[in-house]
Amino acid sequence: MRPIVLPAIALGVATFACMPPSRPFSDADRAAVRATTDTFTARVLRADWTAASNMYSTDARLMPPNQPAVVGRPAINTWMHAFPPVKAFVITVDTIVGSGDLVYTAGHYTMSIQPAGAPAPMNDKGKFLEVHARQSDGSWLNVSDMFNSDLPAMGMAPAKPHAKTPAKAPAKNRTR
After folding, report:
1. Which of 29, 31, 64, 169 has the smallest set of CB atoms within 10 Å of its CB?
2. What is the predicted pLDDT for the residue at 23?
3. 21 three-class SS
């Protein structure tokens, strides 16, 4: 087996050495990713769902609350087209962290939507986490997107703030 192992290791090292190095994540990259958030917000507000879904990679994963994951740009486009009319939408980016060709953004949002048959718009606020990948042309596409509400689900009591609880001491051995 030894004659097979050494060539395999050499091939792996050669392959790694021939890979182009990833570009460093720069301030310009951070600004470009931030601009994608602003562009996405504008597209959502004007219900340009096709343009909004084109900001996702072809195999992206959208993970909306209380629903299964939506996988692939065509499915994301279909999901977006079924979304209720958006009356107001504000995204605030709290964090942008990148390394090489990957970056994640985290933040919070407020939104007002008008579901069909609802007497008034519904307001929501929540948080999001996205992963973007640099494309060969230098642009950044969303490859994974998750968001969820800070408000309790219908019929559920509001969550109480989490208090730090001290660690419990291990139970003493009991003998009979």
Report:
1. 169
2. 73
3. coil
